[in-house]
Design goal:
globular, alpha+beta, 23 strands, Pdz3 Domain, six-stranded antiparallel sheet, 10 helices, eleven-stranded antiparallel sheet, Thrombin, subunit H
Length: 419
């Protein structure tokens, strides 16, 4: 076949170029309404793509929650979540008032009892014994995850439904929960009481933290640091908060002037917790325990009988209070949680609510925070700032004993008020 000449090809190219140019010049302009109809298509496509991406991300978070659903349990009696964090053990959040001595959950379609092995103030957590077949969550070191890592909060509703919420890791902070110190995992989760006892997990299913009630504020407590503290051997003085919700100590010299009896012998009640045996018996911070069953008390060892298994129902304590001796009957056994405690109803604490606390003020030196209540100054109840100031002005020697309350905890502190 004969090949076309170059001149012929050049002529065809010139004709095509001329036709294209003429078509471009003669093409009619689009009507404005046509442009308006076409313009929204691109944003709509963008929104569709964004929505699809968000759906895929949400699907992945839901998948990550299924990785740990067998380790997050519903505790039927307390009505909150718990996490199986090691073989045979569940951890959950403590609450105001005594925790039930046993709880229940469902494992493999059957109901099982979970006896409590460690509870009581000042711990913000409770440990329960679980069957060994319960699925355990892995616990990788939280500090291996870089800041900004995705995390997932997972908890159960009172109906047993599994809920989850995504968030990010910001860092770690050592903080105090009353007299207990823990490591908080800083996140952007909006933690609420309904998440108490739930877990904070990495997206690969590792337990990073447990959601605990820290003196009325929900925090994410680092699981490994919490485990180290939970395994420390308890001293005898730590058993009194657990069994009776009270902390005792020898009376200091400044306390003796404000609270002491004729010889100031005995143990001063420094702290009580709402709903526990000491609180129910009527003991308050500042009371001086001078005897038990008519035997003198000078040291913690004199109160060992309070910690031993006994068949009796109560002990009689001799207490020096407000310049006279009174008898206080305290239960010999830990109290179980009553219904009104489980529902969270508590009596009105009264006192002076602190809207702000100035550094160096008497309340500030006593460890108070905004929202705390000052109940009394040197045994005088206070319900207003005027009463507080008058009670401080009347303090002998410039020292005053304050009783404060926060989240079910009542504690006493000696402060100088004549500066």
């Amino acid at each position: 076949m004969r090949r076309p000449s170059p001149a012929y090809i050049a002529l065809l190219a010139a004709v095509c170029a001329a036709l294209l140019l003429a078509g471009a010049l003669l093409r009619p302009e689009p009507a404005p309404e046509d442009l308006a109809a076409a313009t929204p298509e691109l944003p709509q496509l963008g929104r569709f793509a964004d929505r699809r991406m968000l759906e895929r991300i949400a699907e992945y978070f839901s998948y990550a929650a299924t990785l740990v659903e067998d380790t997050v349990l519903l505790l039927a009696v307390s009505g909150q979540s718990g996490v199986v964090w090691q073989v045979g053990e569940v951890v959950t959040s403590a609450r105001r008032g005594p925790f039930p001595s046993t709880d229940r959950t469902a494992l493999a379609g059957r109901a099982v009892e979970l006896p409590v092995t460690a509870t009581g103030p000042p711990r913000p957590y409770v440990l329960l014994q679980a069957p060994r077949e319960a699925v355990v969550s892995s616990r990788p070191p939280a500090r291996l995850y870089p800041r900004g890592s995705w995390l997932l909060a997972v908890w159960r509703t009172v109906d047993g439904d599994l809920l989850h919420q995504p968030g990010n890791l910001f860092g770690f902070l050592e903080r105090d929960c009353g007299t207990y110190r823990l490591t908080e995992v800083l996140t952007n989760f909006d933690l609420t009481p309904r998440q108490a006892g739930g877990g904070i997990f990495s997206l690969d299913g590792g337990l990073i933290a447990v959601v605990l009630d820290c003196a009325g504020e929900m925090v994410a407590a680092e699981a490994n640091a919490l485990e180290l503290q939970a395994r420390r051997r308890q001293a005898g003085e730590d058993m009194f908060p657990e069994r009776y919700g009270m902390r005792l100590g020898r009376m200091a010299q400044d306390e003796a002037a404000a609270l002491g009896g004729p010889d100031s012998e005995g143990l001063v009640v420094r702290e009580t917790w709402w709903g526990y045996g000491a609180h129910r018996a009527g003991l308050v911070p500042g009371d001086l325990i001078v005897s038990i069953e008519s035997s003198p008390v000078t040291d913690l060892s004199d109160l060992e009988s309070l910690l031993l298994p006994v068949s009796r129902e109560h002990f009689d304590l001799g207490v020096w209070r407000d310049g006279s001796h009174v008898n206080v009957r305290i239960p010999a056994r830990p109290a179980s949680a009553d219904t009104h405690v489980g529902l969270g109803f508590v009596g009105d604490e009264g006192g002076l609510e602190l809207g702000s606390v100035l550094g160096g003020s008497p309340a500030g030196r006593a460890g108070a925070r905004p929202g705390d209540r000052v109940l009394s100054v040197n045994r005088r109840p206070v319900d207003s700032m005027a009463e507080f100031e008058r009670a401080c002005a009347d303090a002998d020697g410039g020292m005053a004993h304050l009783v404060l309350a926060r989240g079910g905890r009542y504690w006493g502190a000696m402060v100088r008020v004549d500066e």
